[in-house]
TrEMBL record:
Protein family (similarity comment): Belongs to the UDP-glucose/GDP-mannose dehydrogenase family.
Transmembrane segments: none
SMART domains on file: UDPG_MGDP_dh_C
Positions bound to NAD(+): D30, K35, T84, T120, K278, R342
PANTHER family, A to Z: UDP-GLUCOSE 6-DEHYDROGENASE TUAD (PTHR43750)
Annotated UDP-glucose/GDP-mannose dehydrogenase C-terminal domain residues: 328-431
SUPFAM superfamilies: 6-phosphogluconate dehydrogenase C-terminal domain-like, NAD(P)-binding Rossmann-fold domains, UDP-glucose/GDP-mannose dehydrogenase C-terminal domain
Record's protein name: UDP-glucose 6-dehydrogenase
Source organism per UniProt: Marinithermus hydrothermalis (strain DSM 14884 / JCM 11576 / T1)
Record EC number: 1.1.1.22
Keywords annotated in UniProt: NAD, Oxidoreductase
Length: 459
């Protein structure tokens, strides 16, 4: 099948590569000429595990262009995967979707492709896209919603082995065409790419076929639910610290209940990234626009915003003041295995620390180059080697759980600090090992023996 993918960012590029691997003839279109030039030379502009290795393998069936005229004519499916960043009031800014739709409409030929929206868009957008194309072409085209659920850092894995595929469309033909596009994924009939083994037990992927608007809402509901699971465990973690409990044990204790499930219950610094903040804000705005107050989502956001401030509070409590202190942050990317810095907690914490009069040092094994480009205001803080953030520091905070940080020569690091405090924002370090190495170790939501509160009698 000839497929056009509009937008070659985290979602569009991953989708294009995966579809080419499955045997489709794929055209990736982007307005960013630099990105397209790099891609055409086989250089992915983003860090995503497996992408660089897979790109040359699929190259014969994968084309990159800035010209809609190359990609659209003859395509059976057009996937829109452009950005939908937050607008001023939290509602998504749909200008890139509008621009993509207007550009593609000019090149539609008689083949009647299905236009499917992969970008996360407000309910009603699909119907608007259909109407706009009809207005431009004076003819009806089928439009579908095909929301994407991949996670950055495991984007290819999630694309090849999704939990489900959602297709929202108002005609059976649109569903049938997209079902045919994804058949190898639905039936898991393709040989797993090298380095991306199929999860054991995965034999088929469920298809959720629904109407356009429900599919659009599924995406927002999924992200909001995941976000509130994280905020829930973080709220429990805050209480655990006060009462002398271990929130990681609480998470395991509740997560084994099949009705709750173990995932997204890792207490920590809270969520970051390009999606959760944007999509929960969008849901609030959409609720407001339709007279529905989204109270649970609002609470989840409030808890998450406070998570970053809790790091500042903990450091202030431990160090009395932040003025003149030196604080090292391990990890800048919003999660491991990506170089994405959108809504990265480390950047927010770094700016708050500087505001409080502290000196900051920042390291990341992959995202440092992007941080230098996108956040030159922090240039003095960046360090090339992780051990440099410990030099004469008063505290080090592990913000992003890159596996490399577990391998640091911890036994040699405490003596290099002014005050050997380590705040483990992701609960991944070995508390006993660090304590033995001379650190004062503080986890998140875990009260270790010497910080436990005095016992209180039952009332
Ligand atoms: N990043 C994720 O993990 C993820 C996962 C699921 C869904 N989503 C959603 O998918 C969408 C894309 O997200 P992303 O992270 O890939 O964004 P991104 O910013 O990485 O990529 C968007 C791309 O679209 C291009 N673009 C903008 N206007 C264009 C136009 N008119 N024609 C062609 N290309 C154009 C940009 O140049 C950019 O390369 C968003 O709606 C997002 O919410 C993202
Ligand atoms: O138990 C957890 C799980 C995650 N996080 C944090 O949550 C954020 C988001 O992580 P993750 O969801 O793994 O990455 P994303 O790439 O943001 O993916 C989310 O957002 C995408 C964009 O919409 C969706 O497609 C995915 O399904 C959804 O998981 C990160 O800062 C994580 O550190 C936690 O704090 N605790």
């Amino acid at each position: 099948m000839k497929v056009a993918v509009i937008g070659t960012g985290y979602v569009g590029l991953t989708t294009a590569v995966a579809l080419a691997y499955l045997g489709h003839e794929v055209w990736g279109v982007d307005v960013d000429a630099t990105k397209i030039r790099d891609l055409a030379r086989g250089h992915p502009p983003i860090h995503e595990p497996g992408l660089e290795a897979l790109l040359p393998l699929v190259q014969p069936r994968l084309h990159f262009t800035t010209a809609y005229a190359d990609a659209i004519p003859g395509a059976e499916v057009i996937l829109i995967a452009v950005g939908t960043p937050p607008g001023a009031d939290g509602a998504p800014d749909l200008r890139y979707v509008r621009q993509a739709v207007e550009a593609l409409a000019l090149h539609l030929d008689g083949a009647h492709p299905v236009v499917a929206i992969k970008s996360t868009v407000p309910m009603g957008t699909g119907r608007w896209v259909r109407a706009r194309i009809q207005e431009i072409r004076a003819e009806a085209y089928e439009v579908a919603s095909n929301p994407e659920f991949l996670r950055q850092g495991s984007a290819l894995h999630d694309t090849f082995y999704p939990n489900r595929i959602v297709i929202g469309a108002d005609t059976p033909r649109a569903v049938a065409v997209l079902e045919a596009l994804y058949r190898p994924l639905l039936e898991q009939s393709f040989p797993p790419p090298k380095g991306l083994p199929r999860p054991s037990g995965l034999e088929a992927v469920p298809l959720v076929a629904t109407d356009l608007t429900s599919a659009e809402l599924i995406k927002y509901a999924a992200n909001a639910f995941l976000a509130l699971k994280i905020s829930f465990i973080n709220e429990i973690a805050a209480l655990a610290e006060q009462v002398g409990a271990d929130a990681t044990h609480v998470a395991r204790g509740i997560g084994l209940d099949a009705r709750i499930g173990p995932q997204f219950l890792r207490p920590g610094i809270g969520w970051g990234g390009s999606c959760f903040d944007k999509d929960t804000a969008a849901l609030l705005a959409l609720g407001r626009a339709h007279g529905t107050e989204m109270r649970i989502v609002q609470a989840a956001r409030a808890v998450n915003h406070h998570q970053r401030e809790r790091i500042i509070e903990k450091l202030t409590r431990e160090l009395t003041t932040l003025r003149g202190r030196t604080v090292g942050l391990l990890g800048i990317a919003f999660k491991p295995h990506t170089d994405d810095l959108r809504d990265a907690p480390a950047l927010a914490i770094a700016h708050r620390l500087i505001q409080c009069g502290a000196h900051v040092r920042l390291h990341d094994p992959v995202a440092l180059a992007r941080a230098r480009r996108e956040h030159p205001e922090l240039e003095r803080a960046y360090r090339e080697h992780p051990t440099e953030v410990f030099e004469e520091a008063d505290a080090v905070v592990l913000v992003t759980e890159w596996p490399q940080y577990l391998e640091l020569p911890w036994e040699t690091l405490a003596p290099r600090m002014r005050f050997p405090l380590v705040l483990d924002g992701r609960n991944v370090l070995d508390a006993a090992r660090l304590t033995a190495a001379g650190f004062r170790y503080l986890g998140t939501g875990r009260c270790i023996a010497h910080t436990a509160p005095a016992p209180t009698p039952p009332r």
